[in-house]
What does this fold into?
Amino acid sequence: GGSGRRADYEHILLDWPKIDPTYCYRCPWGKTYPSCDLDCATALEKEILKNGADSIAAFIAEPMMGSSGGVVPPVKEYWPKIREICRRYDVLLIADEVMTGFGRTGRRFGVDHWEVVPDILVGGKGLTGGYMPMGMIAVKESLVEEVERAKAEFMFYTYSSHPVACAVADEVLAIMERERLVERSAEVGARLGSSLKEELSGHPMVGDIRGTGMFWGIELVQDKATRRPYSPEKKVTNRVLGAAVRKGLFFYPATGMAGKAGGDAMMITPPFIIGDAEIEFIIRTARAALDEIQPNL
Ligand SMILES: Cc1ncc(COP(=O)(O)O)c(C=O)c1O
It folds into this structure.
């Protein structure tokens, strides 16, 4: 649904059914949690009924929105409710854990925060710690059996199950266990998050700081009270990123979370091995980058 990313391909893309995200800072239903009746989750049921359950094969979502939202953890009832709706209408639930998987959010997988088991889980990135290109798909055994029963044949990729990539993934996962890096992501990530909130919430450009584990987002706004975003033409995220990189800090830029009105966010997603000195550096440098850009906006 990212209009910017779709733009060049709109003419060949299907306009498949989708629902607005669980995103409390800019609730698409204009409501406030917890008195909101979870419209974000019941939207799925409405969409399924509108299209007819038989026409919907699966629902795919990120457990916590990454670059489309600038790190947006859902409310805690969201995924259990989505799981229940999918089960009720026989719609497969696919968790896109490419960003959130392998310890990034302080649990092995994002869905583990709510003890939800998707039917299909896709992953990448952290699986090999970035040392080898590799993506993965995990599928419930019952689905595999069904496909086998149907005698369906699968196409494979040139590099499917590439031995070197698999060996790297094996080793990365072993190191993660040996060095308790998922636990470390949760522990040090909590310190990172509370420091970000303490030190940067008061900055005039900072509207919202949210996240968990080593997965944090800082949404930048023109007006803190009304949450009005900067206009997209100002390219605020890119300018802050440029200033930060010159000072030695890279962050993943996220834009467009306010729809046509724009939206800017910095995603702070450091390696799991950082300590207090690096947390201090991240905050000091992020603040310096914001201070450098702010007078020219
Ligand atoms: C949530 C999410 N899903 C999927 C992808 C694509 O992953 P890959 O490049 O491994 O295909 C990305 C890439 O950033 C992503 O962030």
